[in-house]
Amino acid sequence: MKVIKNLRHNIIHQFKNGSSLIFVLALFGCNSMPSATDKLSVERTLVVSATADEVWAFAGGWTSLDNLVPAAIASILSNGNEVGSFRQVNLKGGGIVEETMITKSETRYTYIITKSPLPVSNYRSTLEVKDLGNGKSEFTWRSVFFADSVSNAEATNIIAGLYEGALEVLQNKYNK
Q: C-alpha 83: how far from its chain's center?
């Protein structure tokens, strides 16, 4: 009980000295304000009526992003199709997203965004296709990131919207 009394006394003392809001928010946190320290994630998955090889040939190439994402006009490969490769994606309506591949396997790659007009930072994403057998596969696009100059909900909705657009393209191509 004495510890709680001392803590209460210190908070009141900090408040009287003018630094209370910062002190209290730092001490107890504040969930009502957007925070650049909240790591966010989005994952979207779709079972596709096509083999993993077919889906990967359409959607998985490092320069195939324009097939998959309606917002992308073109992907320009600058130095290859392996780990360390750089791509530039020109967006409809203007804007350029620059990305670097950081891992790669047969039907999976992970990349980071190095420059973007999107309101996210520290964005890391993976595209993956898994073979389910019997002519079916599972396409997954997932990411982790931080909101940048927008609320967590806004940043999450923007990224989710991109992924959902990609799933719609796959749905229309393979599951009709």
A: 19
* 71 contacts 165 by C-beta, under 8 angstroms: yes
pLDDT in tens, 62-94: 888 889 987 776 667 668 889 999 999 888 878
**DSSP assignments along 95-127, one per residue:** -EEEEEEEEEETTEEEEEEEE-SSSEEEEEEEE
Facing residues of 111 across strands? Answer: 101, 125
- Locate the DSSP E strands across 6-107: 40-48, 72-77, 86-91, 96-105
- pLDDT one-digit tens code per residue, 123-152: 999 999 999 999 999 999 999 999 999 999
Which domains are assigned to the chain?
Answer: 1-33 (no CATH), 34-174 (3.30.530.20)
- What sign does the CA torsion over 60, 117, 171, 129 have? positive
Give the global pTM: 0.77
Please compute Rg for the chain using Cα positions.
22
> Quick one: CA dihedral 166, 171, 172, 173, positive or negative?
positive
Name the token pair of 169: 């393209």
Closest CA to 129 of 46, 52, 61: 52
Q: Among 47, 45, 25, 49, which Cα is nearest to 37's?
A: 25
